[in-house]
Amino acid sequence: xLLALVLRPAVVRSQDTVPAKIPDTxxxxxxxxxxxxxxxxxxxxxxxxxxxxxxxxxxxxxxxxNQKVYLFKDAEIKYQxxxxxxxxxxxxxxxxxxxxxxxxxxxxxxxxxxDFTQGSQxxxxxxxxxxxDTKEGYIQTVITKQDEGYLHGEVVxxxxxxxxxxxxxxxxxxDKEDYPDYQFKxxxxxxxxxxxxxxxxxxxxxxxxxxxxxxxxxxxxxxSGHRSGIVLPTYGESPNRGFYLQQxxxxxxxxxxxxxxxxxDIYSHGSWAVTPTFRYAYRYHFSGYLSLGYSLNRIGYAxxxxxxxxxxxxxxxxxxxxxxxxxxxxxxxxxNILSSTYNQNNLSTSAEAYLSNTxxxxxxxxxxxxxLLFFTLxxxxxQNTLNKTVSLTLPEITFYINQVYPFRKKxxxxxxHWWENISTKYTLExxxxxxxxxxxxxxxxxxxxxSNGIRHTVPISGTFRILKYFNWTNAINMTDRMxxxxxxxxxxxxxxxxxxxxxxxxxxxxxxxxxxxxxxSINTRxxxxxxxxxxxxxxxxxxxxxxxxxxxxxxxxxxxLGYWKYIDNDTxxxxxxxxxxxxxxxxxxxxxxxxxxxxxxxxNNLEMKVxxxxxxxxxxxxxxxxxxxxxxxxxDMARDSLRWSPVTLSGYTTLFKYLRITYGSTWDPYARxxxxxxxxxxxxxxxxxxxxxxxxxxxxxxxxxxxxxxxxKTKPTEKGTAAERSDIEEFYDYYIDFDIPWSFSIxxxxxxxxxxxAEFTKRVPTxxxxxxxxxxxxxxxxxxxxxxxxxxxxxxxxAYTRVDVYRDLHCWEMRxxxxxKGGQQQWDFSINVKASILQDMKLNxxxxxxxxxx
Length: 854
Fold this sequence. Notes:
By secondary structure, the chain is mainly beta. It is 3% helix and 59% strand.
């Protein structure tokens, strides 16, 4: 027997004595919850199926006569999948038994609680006796972890099939060993590992105090991983909708790749809602979810004033493809379609959902061939819940050939010639759109409201360096549009009340429209620097980027081409109206007249270099005074009058890293008549000034964020007496530590615009201001407060405001949210157990925006 043991070095002390242990009554009692004779069955030598590995840090003593081993301090025994640790362990080889218990330290305090692990099971106890051959054990005052829960028991009997019986026990998800925050106490219980925990009558105890919550039996799931089950609803009463059950239903774990959660709400006044959510995930391939929502909200009583009834829906689909699944093709989806009042009438407490009024969706597929040919297919959706407009693109197709250089050699040698920089590419676009309002979506005849077309573009361009410092770019752009319907306009004399009526007819049939233009531009960079010999400023650098461009467009509005026509039977024969037959075309029409446009632009950037002692490498720091200030103007040689365009000034810069200032203005060189129309007379000749200021826009934006550093572990403070420091350490949660995380952000935008009124008699200023504030503060490590608010300058009142309070209660958590006023006015309070296994053990109280007077 002893030859099978693996001995570890240990100091043998013969004076050590075996501590008193529980009486061995295994031959007398046969109660399944007490030591039984089965634990003391003599075994033959061949029943030891593996070597026993044991060790201790203090001493180890052999009893050769009785074939026993005594281990003192940090004793550990390993046998097959069994691992036992304790302060004192006694091994009885003839009986194949192990006995373990506490031992007092030098101060007389018991230490070294027995810790027993077998496979996924773990027991912590005061006294333990275990038969490592029959796999049965008898344990006193035990704590064992079962999935997310903990079982406490005065007496535990572990059977050979890993089933465990408990007497005078309790179940909790709190990890406190001596005084759990809460527990369900029972007289007898049974644990089937990996399946369930079953108890007799049980009652709930909170904070050591019993409660009147009594159950006839306890059933706690003890299965790891996914499982299906009922989702318990929350209950309450709404003043406008009656008694309710919310978010109750069923969760179905289909397999390792998908699951389904079906929950809903029901109210005694007739309101109801259903929300199924289907999730799926295939590792290294794709993942996503599909959520649907449909609700019927009845506010008030049918015959009472203020009664309303509204149906709402939502479709939410998110699909993401793993980039490693298909390197050359991707498929993604982000769909969010909902009725205009869905967020207002349903459980949407987030500020983002409540304040949003524009929603967009897209489904995208793209692929390419050898990174030369590219193809994309898009389905897009956009809606505005304020004006109820809906825009659908079904579908949008793009096919293009990547940029190629037809005159370049496959193997380049020597200096590159100018013609080798000429490049071209090809793009095909096809789109079909449908614009309407949500109440008319897909109503009969909706197909006639669609707009579609195809566009081909072929640009040929080349950029060349001339005179070493100038970049010269030339381009020819060719465009061909294809439509299956065009329009015709004519006046019908005297058709309505004797007046002529303009009638627009749709003509079906294929038509295409071709146009092309030529463009050339040249630009360079000019640097200027002024250096200072003394003072904190070292240098100021000014960079200018002047550019001149010319573009020529032929007259594509010639009647011979048929793209543009005059209205038939126009009653105004002197100046007949001109229109394009592609007026409803999704890609527009060729330009109606010849253009020879010369454009001028001058961009400026101003920086300053100052001394900075904080920079130990260069000793300097750059400050951007003006990030960009650009002047633009153009001159159209093809026009017979008003050839100069207004001069535009625009610029922006960022101060102190947080304050962004933008500026824009328009200056017109031509005067206006009494009706506000531009006339072919210069502002200088009429009003004796070079330009007339048309409008000015100043925008100031401030986005500033502050946050504390994360709490760093520091050495214990030496302040205060030893008793005070000990008291703080022991009752830390009752003291406020102000060196804790916090954050604060502010966003302010100011826009000033000064423009002419409709009569062009005076310039009217317009001011728009927005202010948003948000922040969060951990008052203590377990208390957290967050705030979202703002100020409406136009209404002179608070904007959407929400206050949230969170309290960490160790095994519990508490939340309180409050929106004091506005369309989303509400409050909600909840306290619940953190563990997901008891997620339905919670208390919810609330009053949301639908419960206030409408």
